[in-house]
Structures
1.
Amino acid sequence: MVPKKAFFTKGVGVHKDKLASFELALRNAGIEKCNLVYVSSIFPPNCKLISKEDGMKLLNPGEITFCVMARSETNEPNRLICSAIGMALPKDENHYGYISEHHGYGETAKKAGDYAEDLAATMLATTLGIEFDSDIAWEEREQIYKASGHIFKTTNTTQTAEGNKDGLWTTTISAVVFVGDQLNQ
């Protein structure tokens, strides 16, 4: 079972019940009808990143659906929460890439997204033997990674939200979803 297609999605939900808040975040992301199975951090070789719209057409109610998901939740009024997925893809499509998940508090979408993207790129760089100084800023390392000729693309998708002012549960999710009948093809 090696996926051939994947897409990014994200969502936010608010409800008095924690679980219902998560369900609403899944609905907002468009993946509530699937039986989600969380997998770890590898983006398969030769897997194609497709649009959310194209990916949604391949989902079927009740389907076992593999994803990498970041999730954050709070019932603290006005607390900033974030969920971010980072991805780093190698130039050689026959090599695997990396997906990272990050969830936190008090971070802007840019900060959380950059962190997740940096994490994925760093994991990929270490497997490719790219030398770098982990103490320099992400923007500098990103240029080093891309200049190496081994890393083709880095990206992220991030969802932030402020905790509901009345203390209702607020949930954010970000995910990479593996879709369709690609598991056997």
2.
Amino acid sequence: MSDLFSAFDFSARTALVTGGTRGIGRAITASLAEQGARVYFCGTNRELGEKVEQELSGSKGPVHFLPADISSLDQAKTLVDTILEREGQLDFLINNAGITRDNIFLRMKEQEWDEVMAVNLKGCFNCTRAAVKSMVKKRFGRLIYLSSVVGMMGNAGQANYAASKAGIIGFSKSMARELASRQITSNVIAPGYIETEMTAGMTEKAKEEMMSLIPARRLGTVDDVAQAVIFLVSPLASYITGQVLQVNGGLLMP
């Protein structure tokens, strides 16, 4: 983590990271805990969640796993209510959970469309709906939504994923307009190609072709994204809302 963030003390803050059991979500969970925040993260794999909770148990801030399927409004509400009962507040909501069901459009099944929308887009609605009332009462909150470069430029074989990620951008901007007067900011982080389990399975040729499109000539790391989250929830970004922060090495420059 950058030395710039070493002065931040989030020990008075409570955070929820959805989809925090692996990849970008795990890195965000770890980074917030490194800054002292009391971090809750959710996922549908209880065994993996408990393993990550144990691995991060030595962090500056406490880390807790709560199993939840955020595509369900009831489960999202129970998740947030549990945090509020334990901590009395929820300051940072990091909407990271997402899935893919890739297929070319002519072969895409309705189920593949619906599943992606349910988790990626409706999940953001569900968690924000559950969390924002307490933020309004406190007159403070940081909403972060993980979109994707694909949501900004599209991608063949990912019409469902691209649509869900584009929808997140519109949703976040609407939240920014509605909630700014309550000192609640709402911003999007749109990662490009990041080194994760998904990209690890690519051939070297495919990676080379991908990197040829990226001016930085490298894939991003999960920490690149996590540091963007730390910036946007920090006091440095208190006057930034309704924005899309691209973390893509220059792949897309609108």
3.
Amino acid sequence: MSSYSYADTFSHTHARRLAGRVTTDLRQSHLLYGSPTESGLEDYRAELEELLSEGCVARYQFGFKRDEKAVWSLRYVVGPDGALAGAGAAGGVPSAVNITGATFFNFLTFSDKWFRLSPSERRAIEGKLPFTRNDGTLPSEMGGYWTRDRTYAAGGVALERSVFRNLAA
């Protein structure tokens, strides 16, 4: 879990811009690997936009796993961008990775703010979301490495993106 506070200038429009960048990455994954589904893209965007606008996301991660080990993954860490500048261009999803026998995963880690909300406040936010998440565990990252490659920023909040590549994949 992590904690961050939004700048006074952060708005739902900024959340939409950041969620759109992640959705572009999800769409590129769909085009290269067939997952997530085309119909799931809008649901992921709507969920992330709503939770970002409420300050309830600490990390967001998706990719492919085989035998509970990550094949490739993109991870976004949410926080104030301070002196970071620019919005960063979406894309750059790992290509030509062998995902035979692998399955798509999508994982969201809630921020400290989420856990400080009352049950009724959480239910109110959940009522706006397109689907309900289940508890889960991220795949193992053994046998690979992370590279920080992009930062998507809007309204004083940044999504710092890293790419995981499995050396055996």
